[in-house]
Amino acid sequence: AQSVTQLDSHVSVSEGTPVLLRCNYSSSYSPSLFWYVQHPNKGLQLLLKYTSAATLVKGINGFEAEFKKSETSFHLTKPSAHMSDAAEYFCVVSDLLYTGGFKTIFGAGTRLFVKA
Amino acid sequence: EAQVTQNPRYLITVTGKKLTVTCSQNMNHEYMSWYRQDPGLGLRQIYYSMNVEVTDKGDVPEGYKVSRKEKRNFPLILESPSPNQTSLYFCASSPPTNEHTEAFFGQGTRLTVV
């Protein structure tokens, strides 16, 4: 069965310091993994995705994530936080179904605060 | 511009009064879905559709209906809304279902049922 656990509901960092948002997942098959960002009163925007290619995935705005199968993790990182990074971040796992569709599960979200 | 368009963006209604939230995409995507977002729960899938006339329940389908008569449109219908359906709703679309690719989301519809 699928599940996604975002280990922190809130993360607070100072501007210019590194960001780490943690995500663990479980999946029965070979999943695809995504990180989305949601700014206040906005829709969701894709940050990056892993689809069985390179395990280190680079996304937009300087974010990257590493797929670690042995740890079932897909943590999101950024070397230096910017004020504009303050938002809510969602880790997402997607599995292909035998019916031809796919099942997508969202984590509960991590709200990132960036202090000046 | 490629986009998913939801209407309305904001809606306040009373218990029991039927409503429809429309969703339209201009990317010729086969796969469309509806989610609700509630604090601390992330997004939960309500219904999804793999193609025209093909729909299926997601994780929280109770109290909702959908239809997919055309590829571009996927309306969400609340026949008799209740206060526990107060939430932020997102429609999403994706390219063909045999690819693990990202979903494109609408801007959201904030629904309040009083």
Task: Describe the secondary-structure layout.
The complex is a heterodimer of chains A (116) and B (114).
Chain A: E1 3-6, E2 10-14, E3 19-21, E4 23-26, E5 32-38, E6 44-50, E7 56-58, E8 64-68, E9 73-78, E10 87-96, E11 102-106, E12 110-115
Parallel strand pairs in A: 2-12
Antiparallel strand pairs in A: 1-4, 3-9, 5-6, 5-10, 7-8, 8-9, 10-11, 10-12
Chain B: E1 4-7, E2 10-13, E3 19-25, E4 31-38, E5 42-51, E6 54-57, E7 65-66, E8 76-78, E9 87-94, E10 104-105, E11 109-113
Parallel strand pairs in B: 2-11
Antiparallel strand pairs in B: 1-3, 3-8, 4-5, 4-9, 5-6, 7-8, 9-10, 9-11
Account of the protein in words:
The complex is a heterodimer of chains A (116) and B (114). In chain A, strand 5 and strand 6 form a beta hairpin. Chain A is mainly β and 116 residues long. Chain A has no helices and 12 strands. The N and C termini of chain A lie far apart (41 Å). In chain A, strands 2, 5, 6, 10, 11 and 12 form a 6-stranded mixed sheet that branches. A 4-stranded antiparallel sheet of chain A has the order 3-9-8-7, with no helix packed on it. Chain B is mostly beta strands. In chain B, the strands form 2 sheets. In chain B, strands 2, 4, 5, 6, 9, 10 and 11 form a 7-stranded mixed sheet that branches. Chain B has a 4-stranded antiparallel sheet with strand order 1-3-8-7, with no helix packed on it. Chain B is globular and about 40 Å long. The interface between A and B is medium-sized, with 26 and 23 residues.
Based on the model shown, name its key terms.
heterodimer; A: 116 residues; mainly beta; 6-stranded mixed β-sheet; 4-stranded antiparallel β-sheet; 0% helix; B: 114 residues; 7-stranded mixed β-sheet; globular
